[in-house]
Amino acid sequence: MYTEKTVPSLINKNGDILLVNNFFICKEKQTEEGKIVSSLTADEAKAIMSSHFYNLNTTDGVIKVMMI
């Protein structure tokens, strides 16, 4: 998960960098035992990738970033 170089991975609509390097997107649901964190389904992951990820031009090339 760690790289030698830090690259932006999460930005806001103003272009401010909120997070660098890799991150995981999980979902949380309430059960009788409490909150459980689980993986996204393939369809949920595709929906997020198609609606929230953008190409960001950097001096090192184009990278994918998530915009919130």
* Number of β-strand runs: 6
Describe the global form.
elongated
- Largest pleated sheet: 4 strands, mixed
If helices are DSSP runs of H or I spanning 4 or more residues, what is the number of helices?
1
Structural class: alpha+beta
Task: For the largest sheet, list the strands in their spatial order.
Answer: 2-1-6-5
Average residue-wise pLDDT: 80
Q: Name the poorly predicted regions.
A: none
What series of H and E elements makes up the topology?
EEEEHEE
Determine the oligomeric state from the structure. Answer: single chain
Radius of gyration: 15 Å
**First-last Cα distance:** 22 Å
| Strand portion | over 45%
As a percent range, the share of helical residues equals 10-25%
Q: What does the secondary structure layout of this molecule look like, with pairings?
A:
Layout lengths: L7 E4 L5 E4 L6 E5 L2 E5 L3 H11 E6 L2 E7 L1
Parallel strand pairs: 1-6
Antiparallel strand pairs: 1-2, 3-4, 5-6
